[in-house]
Amino acid sequence: MADLEKFRAETRxxxxxxxxxxxxxxxxxxxDTFWGGRNTKFSSDAQRVWFERMRDKGWTVPHWPKExxxxxxxxxxxxxxxxxMAAIGARQPLTxxxxxxxxxxxxxxxxxxxxxxxxxxxxxxxxxxxxxxxEPNAGSDLxxxxxxxxxxxxxxxxxxxxxxxxxxxxxxxxxCLVRTDPAAKKxxxxxxxxxxxxxxxxxxxxxxxxxxxxxxxxxxxxNVRVPKSHVVGTVNRGxxxxxxxxxxxxxxxxxxxxxxxxxxxxxxxxxxxGADAQxxxxxxxxxxxxxxxEVDEAALAAAAERAVDLAKAGQSHPxxxxxxxxxxxxxxxxxxEILMSAGGIDAxxxxxxxxxxxxxxxxxxxxxxxxxxxxxxxxxxxxxxxRILDLPGA
Amino acid sequence: MALVLTEExxxxxxxxxxxxxxxxxxxxxxxxxxxxxxTGFSRELWTTFAEMGFxxxxxxxxxxxxxxGCVEAGIVMEEIGRTLMPSPFLATxxxxxxxxxxxxxxxxxxxxxxxxxxxxxxxxxxxDEGAKHRPLQTKLxxxxxxxxxxxxxxxxxxxxxxxxxxLIVAARSAGGAGDKNGLTLFLVDPKxxxxxxxxxxxxxxxxxxxxxxxKVEVNADSVLGEVDQGFGLLEGVLNIxxxxxxxxxxxxxxxxxxxxxxxxxxxxQFGKPIGEFQALQxxxxxxxxxxxxxxxxxxxxxxxxxxxxxxxxxAVSVAKARAGTTATxxxxxxxxxxxxxxxxxxxDIGFFMKRARVCQELFGDSNFHADQLAQGKGY
Lengths: 394, 379
Ligand SMILES: Cc1cc2nc3c(=O)[nH]c(=O)nc-3n(C[C@H](O)[C@H](O)[C@H](O)COP(=O)(O)OP(=O)(O)OC[C@H]3O[C@@H](n4cnc5c(N)ncnc54)[C@H](O)[C@@H]3O)c2cc1C
What we know:
The structure holds two protein chains of two kinds.
Chain A: H1 2-18, H2 45-57, H3 75-87, H4 97-109, H5 112-123, E1 129-132, E2 148-152, E3 155-166, E4 173-179, E5 190-196, E6 202-207, E7 216-227, E8 231-232, H6 238-254, H7 265-273, H8 284-312, H9 320-343, H10 359-367, H11 377-388
Parallel strand pairs in A: 1-4
Antiparallel strand pairs in A: 2-3, 3-7, 4-5, 5-8, 6-7
Chain B: H1 7-23, H2 26-34, H3 43-51, H4 70-83, H5 89-103, H6 106-117, E1 123-126, E2 141-145, E3 148-159, E4 166-172, E5 183-188, E6 195-201, E7 207-218, E8 223-224, H7 230-266, E9 268-269, E10 272-273, H8 278-307, H9 313-337, H10 349-361, H11 366-376
Flavin-adenine dinucleotide sits at the interface of chains A and B.
Protein name (chain B): Acyl-CoA dehydrogenase family protein
Pfam family, one (chain B): Acyl-CoA_dh_M
Family (chain B): Belongs to the acyl-CoA dehydrogenase family.
């Protein structure tokens, strides 16, 4: 315990010294996120400095082993880093699907060679990954995917189409689900494979979203040649890897509401709605909606903390991430509905400078995808019913 | 009065639906948005609206209109809601026409109403100043000057403000924020000296403007209704607008719902139409029930407005509050049940989500109207 207190004090002092003031302010928009990768650009000097210092300390991913570019911290220490960063409002120095999704799957299923090859490049922000799961006819029913990988000597030849591939047009590499045995039952013929998006035969086409942004793409594979050694885990057993990764994806998405959280909702609302004579928000119903939202938000934060502790104690249910994903994303949608309501007509402007290009309504519309991406709310409830509650026929 | 449409009303609905679905499907709004059209609606279509008598629906016969009521206006608004057609109908044919015909002097009526009826005059109502709809908080100052007034202050969210030939402006001529007495409505020429109009691009690709008044001079003839006693007139006009927007939201909700149910029957996952999953069936059924209940409340309010405008407040608040929550639910479920497709711009459903958000805010959101109802009932 004394050691941990010492660690906390050192961490606090280091962050105080090294986290630029600009990186302690809430992000103005999604554009302020640093994703890394070959074609990356920093949006500010402060962002670059912050990233480089954290990278050099191994703290882009504090809990991964040092040999793979992580910080080598144990669970308690990593928690302290998170808490101390949160205490000063420090932004994530690096956000990436490599950290939140692929990394954990590689640590569990990858060969030593694969780990040494890919993990350090993730922690150093050198390679940006995208996720090739969904297909036009394989959404919620992911295991019905049709993209084919056919063996040819030491390689596979991959053909097919993916859809909703987030940031495929910016990504360097893809982790991808392909069908390697079309004769097997649908879950048993899938493999999990990694390849470079610059490979011959890969093309992407951005899809415009209702928010006016195009964060995801249609992705096409036309005779893409990939070495067989790029399969992670056992050939045809890719579903296990895919599911394990999804648990991490869901945990990440459920925490999205906490990302970039700025001032409390009640204060934001007071800016536009004003206060009554007692200093309370001058809209009794909005006030009670915000208060009950904040009750739920605090409880969710406790549940998220507990989920980590339960996992450490070996007591968590593997499907619990679905419960958290469901609750976290529905709550985040509620948050943005309230933000829109609090903003009133100011939150309805789309292109003006006054509205920062419509930042609030665009963020509001983006949250509608939270309960769809990474598995829909309906699918999450189905998983809870079947895997946790063991309900018949579910 | 029966809560069903009469034969004439059904005919009106059919002709409005025919015209609007033919000439202004959602693709119409989309192309106006994509081309960043300076007007934001089709003047040609507005002329057709006038020829069919829609622009003069609420204008009394003697001024060239058809002298119909709020139920009829609501019928047209519902059809507008189905395709999200941007049009001056709400601002000009509903709000301005009722403000003038209810509060105007004979001279004012004779000057403006025939032009509203024949489609040649566009008007807009300038009320809101802050982020939320709070008409009693009006601050825009009307100071006496000579035989008239000088207006100073800001208005926001003036629907169709950038194309209006005539503005109806709520101003404070006496008292302070929150007072019912001391509000006056003025008819103002948007080209008047000291007046600046800025079109605001809204999330729903419909039109609104911010307007700044810097000592804008108006003479005594431009007062609509009575000096300092404008709140009663304004409240009546706003209630007609609220009923109309509620009706638009019913149309919007039903359309989104219809499209969603179609998708539930078409889209297959796990080897069957997703509509076979009870998790979705029950929610679709609940949404259907919700929309039907709201539809009744809205028709009730529109009828109440026609019977006795001054007593319709509670019914209107019920309608607007419910229509707002129903539309919010309908578009949320619409996007969710379409999965990834629902998030794409190429699909129309996002347009409904955006318009629903604006309609919710327009003339008071569900919270505002629940509060109005509480006040109306004396608690
Ligand atoms: C913003 C965003 C980013 C994304 N990023 C990626 C990415 O990077 N990589 C990637 O591979 N994919 C990505 N996706 C895809 C995402 O995982 C899918 O959209 C999701 O799994 C749903 O599939 P679908 O869109 O085909 O919807 P469908 O599966 O067609 O679902 C339609 C509706 O039916 C419901 N439904 C389906 N099955 C059932 C059932 N059994 N019981 C009850 N209801 C059911 C759904 O819940 C939904 O409401 C992204 C999606 C979004 C919106």
